[in-house]
Amino acid sequence: MHIDRLFAVAGSALDAQRQRLNIIAGNLANAESTRAPGGGPFVRRDVIFQPTGPASPFRRVFLQAFGSTTEPQGVKVARVVVDPRPNRHVYNPHHPDADAEGFVQLPNVNVIEEMTNLLAASRAFEANLTVLETGKTLMLRTLEMGR
After folding, report:
1. Could you write out the three-class secondary structure of the chain?
2. pTM, entire model
């Protein structure tokens, strides 16, 4: 793999994980929000990743000529989706948003699940940062060998 592809793949993964971290942070910040702009409680969001498209046709021909059939691809956030799970219903008759029976609709955000997702996204971000740092070190040492 060429060093430019290494940087492109790791860079795209960093950007995708950054977006994922932002969505998770929004979920955590609104875990108890009973009023969203569209009405009703906040609804949990999640990201859907998608591999980025292959390189130019010339590069594919070049790779095939040297016996490689696949090229490393990057990743991007294809879309942000709304979680279809139902809201939580909690009995709290003193809450200003409680219904006539005293129940409040709270977001479908599970804080433990979000913290787990936050940890996984953070580790994925760190791993891709390490790939970039290793690539940079490799490139600098290669340049030093040429001196």
Report:
1. CCHHHHHHHHHHHHHHHHHHHHHHHHHHHCCCCCCCCCCCCCCCEEEEEEECCCCCHHHHHHHHHCCCCCCCCCEEEEEEEECCCCCEEEECCCCCCCCCCCEEEECCCCHHHHHHHHHHHHHHHHHHHHHHHHHHHHHHHHHHHCC
2. 0.81
